[in-house]
Amino acid sequence: MTRLPQLERQIARLQRRTEFLNEISRKYWNARRIIFVAGVLLALSFCGVSGTRAGWITGGLLAAVFGVVTIFHNRVRDSLNRTSILIDIKQVQIARIRLVWDRLPPTEQSPLAVANHPFASDLDIVGERSLHRLIDSAVTKEGSERLMSWLLAVRPDVSVIQHRQALVRELKDLSVFRDRLQLLSAVARQSTVGPRSRASHWNSHILIDWIERITPHASLLKVVLFLSALSALNIACIVLTALNVTPWIWPLTFLLYMGAMYLYQHRIASAWNELQQLEKALTHFKVVFRYLESRSYKNTPRLGEICAPFRDQEKQPSVEIRRLGTLAAALGVRTNPLLWLLVHVVVPWDFIFTHRLNLLRTELAHLLPRWLDAWYELEALNALANFAYLNPEYTFPTISSEQNHFAARNLGHPLLNHETKVCNNAKLGQGQRIVILTGSNMAGKSTFLRTIGVNLCLTYAGTTVNADELETSLFRPFTCIKVSDSVQDGLSYFYAEVKRLQALLAAAKADDSMPVLFLIDEIFRGTNSRERLIGSRSYIRSLSQSNAIGLVATHDLELIKLADEIDGVVNFHFREEVSHGRMVFDYRLRPGPCPTTNALTIMRLEGLPVDA
């Protein structure tokens, strides 16, 4: 919560800047109106007094002054727009701290969040009020999806985690860099899709789509050389005829040259439209690319490695965009038919520059994926770093070399409000492989399961976790918490649960060196108590013989006896108290089985009939 005063001060400072810029903008608006009206009146006056020439000169001078004022006014308006975006970024950061979901950018359904994912839905990694939506600050759709893929990783890699942690540590304190990159990305998105677009993310893959969509043409080099030779021959014939060295044969060579150009015209018919599309797309990206290529990475070597594609002096985006601008200006000659004809009488202008465009397009086909990949990586890393920055009380977890080890101190759920959140210690290991978690309704069992799972996802993604300390080995997380029936597939709740538990057990018994960490809530709740008990005991016993550790939350107090029957099974519980006719929960995890139940008490407090 220590970030809130800092962010509020930044917003207040930006709002004061907005007021200052608005005042300047109003002055520029007034100046433009005065110059326009004065220009018209003075031009007409001089026309009547000193003649038309004096009127035109006066009007031209005042038009130039009007243009200069307009340029400065547009700069002020651009600054206002960027300040407004930056205020919005800061306000969203406060919303992320306070969990004001209505203020966060909307989320999008992604194909990554498939229904049969081992834990995506159960742990609220995706969805309206999800971990991904809380963390996601990416402007591009691809950056957002990359972040999601990290949070949904089913097989973590220790080298990837440690490398990503190092990058997040570097970026965590670079708040100016992170805000600047997000600001420029938002400006680029705004210029592409418009400020009022309802799309939550910008699909910036348009450049690669453009490259892939264009059918590669055969090289124009031979055509250019052939037409250039005809052009040279034609010019030579004209000069020699003018010097009376040769007879009048140049009309024949000229017709041959023009006919050849007409014959090959289909090879360059779409060049102008293709160039316009590419230049327009790159123009929106260049503000982000220019910032990444101009920044120094001397003190951030790992960040510099990611941004290496922008630092190649000969292949920088700004260099390629300038080359593209040169080609656009050259091919733009065709917008003036007379000039186009005069130029082509001398040289095969369009063919030469279309050939150069094809070469540049081939070069960009190799460069653009590297630039965009680095940008998407930065956006996903910035989101993780921003999460760590906004929650300074969170810590970086440690990856343990010990097998089947999970230990956390003061572990909390990042999707719960800071003021009301209760944190608990958690431990799983060789002597405590399966925890039977009992407790009354609403005591906190399900939340505790999700707390472990969510922080495990944060660990494997490479950012901080909601704990004072967390050490874990690598696991394949698998959950069975929010099972639902399916009308479309004709599945009952119980059958859907059975299929989910069967998939979990299959993963636990698979020939895999990486163990499963399972989280099961209310096992076999979809059947009667007798069969539920028989099935639960058999299932937990089978899990104890597999390559897995985890927790099973249940209301069945009979399951606590498994601690006496199976090595590695232990009991923990949550409890409650009834005070002044109300249920009171402290959400504290305690060892041993739960000594209380509250179902009848809840029914009685709500006025339902309960036999003594």
Molecular structure report:
With 612 residues, the chain is an alpha/beta fold. It has 19 helices and twelve strands. It has a six-stranded mixed sheet, with helices on both faces. Strands 1-5-2-3 form a four-stranded mixed sheet, with helices on one face. The longest helix is centred in the N-terminal third of the chain and has 47 residues.
Q: What is the mean predicted local confidence, pLDDT?
A: 86
The stretches of 5 or more residues where confidence is low (pLDDT under 50) are none
Strand content: 5-15%
The biggest beta sheet is recorded as: 6 strands, mixed
Give me the number of helical elements: 19
- Strands, count: 12
Largest sheet strand order: 6-7-8-4-9-12
The separation of the N and C termini measures 48 Å
In terms of structural class, how would the helical and strand content be classed? alpha/beta
Shape: elongated
Alpha-carbon Rg, integer: 34 Å
**Helicity, as a percent range:** 55-70%
Topology record:
Elements: H1 3-49, H2 52-98, H3 131-135, H4 141-151, H5 158-172, H6 175-193, H7 206-213, H8 221-242, H9 250-263, H10 271-294, H11 301-306, H12 317-331, H13 337-346, H14 349-390, E1 398-399, E2 406-411, E3 424-428, E4 434-439, H15 445-461, E5 469-472, E6 476-480, H16 493-509, E7 516-521, H17 529-544, E8 548-554, H18 562-565, E9 569-574, E10 576-579, E11 582-585, E12 590-591, H19 599-605
Parallel strand pairs: 1-5, 4-8, 4-9, 6-7, 7-8
Antiparallel strand pairs: 2-3, 2-5, 9-12, 10-11
